Amino acid sequence: MKTPYRRPLALLLAAVLAAAPLCTSALAAGELEPVCDESYYATLDYYGGLMDASVVKSYQTNGHTSLTDYGTYDDIINLTDDRTPTVSDGTVTFDLGEDAPSRFYFEGKTQQPFHDLPWTFSVSYKLNGAPALAEDLAGKTGLVEIDLDVLPNPNASEYSRNNLVLTAATAFNADDILSLEAPGAEVQLVGNLRTVLFMVMPGEEQHFAIRVGSDDFSFSGLVLLAVPATLQQLDQIADLREAKEKVEDSYDAINDSMDVILNTLDGMSGSLNATASGLDRLNAARGTISSGKGQVYDSADAALADLDALNGALAPLNGHLDTASQALTDTTGTLTALTENAVALKPELSAARKSIQNLQSDTKKLKELAGSIESYNKEAAQIAGNLENDFSDMSDALEDLERSLAKLESALKGAKGVSEVDTIHIGGFTSSEQILEKLEEVQAGKATYDQMLAAGLLPEGTTFEQFLMIPTEMGGPGKTAEEAQLAVKLLEMSQEADFEEQLKLLDTANSAIPGVNDKIDEVNSLVSGLAKPTANVVDDLQSLTIALGEDGLSDDLTRLKGFEGP
């Protein structure tokens, strides 16, 4: 029995592009130009998509020591010897030297000719009538259908569209299959191989089907060969097209006659059909109303679910915005308190300034009287009384000033900065780009898990989360429990209807946070800038009150008050 891991091979496309020489060299009289032949090879995947392609060129050197090929390639491989070409501006030059071979080969990697071929290819698969993946068919039991769609390529050149003939071939081991059907194909038995050959004329659209019954399916792939037709073949193709057109005209005439007969029969049963049609429309209308009601209910439920999801996504942002709003409110209150305390200081400072001015005036008078204190004892006593009153007023003003300073200092100490708003996270990610990159990795792991589970490579009942935690030495991804849980959660989120809206909301919220934090930084800067100069004013005022307090001028004034003269 064949191994169940055998898989269908990729398609091989070999297209002969041209036989015209694409090389030049300096020619002496009587010398022959190098002759060039080329073939284009393309390897396709299971479904007809291009995987790898290259042009193989064969030159008959005719004695030349240098070859120049005109073409643009992704990579160049010398198939003859170890000479390295010189590549420049769409040319490839090989210096062959005096020991130049009579025939020279090289390969140029390029995908461009594939897109200019006269056909495009599409391959699909079914197992027992149900669509299936090519990767899952190896070793299967049942009826496998391989459908090949060959469609004309409008981008191909006029020459290739009208001159290239396409053949599609494959083979199956007759001992390994139970049945083989290929409508429209030539099926031959060659030894123990059942070969299948299709042909497509220039400019034709064809759809081929191969149905294989097997209890252990395997497939070697398709070989597609596009070659130019000869002049005789082109004449035969023209005759075939003309005959095909005549057959199509006859078929259309027969169809027209059948239409007349069917219309007559329809007229005979028109009344019965009308009645039946009316009942059918009535029943369809009833079904439409019934299904419409359910659709309305489903749409309402979906809308409510979307609104709930949106509200849940906005909830973290609302919390941060509330925090920012409260912080701004607190800052505004603190600045208001500072302003009120500063304004309250104004009358106390005015009173203190007035008291100091009075004190200076009385002190000046006291100095003027110091030389004649004996004769002016009465006046000195009056001045001393005035000084006592002034000192009392000044003491009251200083006490009020100290209280105001204490309030201002307390307000300064209570002023604090506003905390910045944190970035919103979903599953540890802060942007849709990060989430989508991680999701691609998770989806790739899920695809591997599905394949291994389907192939029986995992114990029955193994969950995707358990698969992710399989150690790397055992062939698993080797994820931690936390990483596996995150992957499963992320996969579940991606399947929700509002997943894209959640990603957009996350990006919008996080893009707004730097602006909010900038405003918070401005507020904090304002508070810091106000605190320092205000603190300096407080220090200066406190120094003034100390100078005028019990250890300073007040003691001198007290002693002066008791002066009675000689």
What is the structure about, briefly put?
The protein is an alpha+beta fold and 566 residues long. It contains 10 helices and 18 strands.
Task: Please describe the topology of this protein.
Elements: E1 11-18, E2 23-24, E3 35-44, E4 50-60, E5 66-70, E6 75-78, E7 86-88, E8 91-95, E9 103-109, H1 112-115, E10 119-127, E11 130-132, E12 142-152, H2 158-163, E13 164-173, E14 179-181, E15 186-190, E16 193-200, E17 206-214, E18 223-228, H3 231-268, H4 270-370, H5 377-414, H6 432-454, H7 464-468, H8 481-494, H9 499-547, H10 553-561
Parallel strand pairs: 1-18
Antiparallel strand pairs: 1-3, 2-5, 3-4, 4-9, 5-8, 6-9, 7-8, 10-11, 10-12, 12-17, 13-16, 13-18, 14-17, 15-16
Helix pairs in contact: 4-5, 4-9, 5-9, 5-10, 6-8
Overview of the molecule:
- With 566 residues, the protein is of the alpha+beta class.
- The chain folds into three domains: 11-115; 119-234, Immunoglobulin-like (Sandwich); 313-566, no CATH class.
- The chain has ten helices and 18 strands.
- The chain has a nine-stranded mixed beta sheet. A five-stranded antiparallel beta sheet has the order 11-10-12-17-14, with no helix packed on it. Strands 2-5-8-7 form a four-stranded antiparallel beta sheet, with no helix packed on it.
- A hairpin with a 2-residue loop joins strand 10 (119-127) and strand 11.
- Helix 4 packs antiparallel against helix 5 (377-414).
- The longest helix is centred in the middle third of the chain and has 101 residues, at 270-370.
- It is elongated.
- The termini are far apart.
- The relative contact order is 0.07.
